[in-house]
Hints:
single chain; Dihydrodipicolinate Reductase, domain 2
Amino acid sequence: MKKVRVAVIGCGVIAPTHIKCYQANEGAELVAVCDIIEERAKKLAEEYNVPRYTTNAAELFADPEIDAVSICTEHYTHSDLVVAAFNAGKHVVCEKCLAASIPELDAMMAAANAHPELVATGIFQHRFTAINRELKAIVEEGLLGRLLTSRAQLYCLRTDEYYKSDAWRGTWKCEGGSILINQAIHFIDQMLWISGGPDLNQKPVAMIRNLNHEGVIETDDTAAAVVPLANGALGVIEATSASFHIWHNTLSFEGTKGIVEIRDDKPLSIEFKDPEVQAEVTRRLTDAAKPENLDFGKEYYGGGHPGQINDFIAAIQEKRAPYVTLEDAASTARVILNIYEPFRA
């Protein structure tokens, strides 16, 4: 089967993860990297033996030999790049968050709808990890009974120096927010996905604060929200980047027959009315919590990037939709952007 020829656009922190995934995939051929900072593109190309680098994304879009692109740039650039890629006939992977504003997200999805022949996915790699898939199956099988509440909770630390290191961080125009749209977004997605999805016809109720980064960022370092879910349950989000914890995430799901809570991808609390069901769920989640290969990025990325990239390449070759469609990723992005909308400067 013909290899999918891929270019990575954006040579920042996440780019090496995409590069390693493509280079480990026998169905893909990484042919180019791109960054507006030439030295950064050149350095990454040399480090990973990529045959070509450029500072001009349009050059890659115009190249008929390139089949697909990974967009690994800052949030505010995603929409324009993805639209340009679609218009050039390229399949697309876009890192989170898909857009920094609702109009940008709408423009991206309009372009996607105009090109249904192209495979497109938004990165939510945690959907590919074993414990999250098992937890989703447990909810879908009805073992929790009727779902009542779901909760995504993240405590992490981002210093003033972190926000100052890149001018786009912590700004409404460029990042679109902060703690929810960047660090917490993956866990929000997990909560929504495992629960069966949000009800986008109802707006979330939220409060955001900047409690520990005043004068450094204009957006939030602490936030709480309640999101209506499609099945009638309530999704609760709690997140802060001002904690002393470097990284600490919890997902919990409460139903009429049981409660499950996982912390940092390991079972924390499992309680069910039926002891046999409790034993089954405990066994399934314990088995699914085995360590994964983390050679593709930072520890809190989890081991899901290779699975999502592999699925993307296979979807192109098999002419099918990817496991995480762009519409799936847009649903989570829209929830977060709806939370932020009343607070945008």
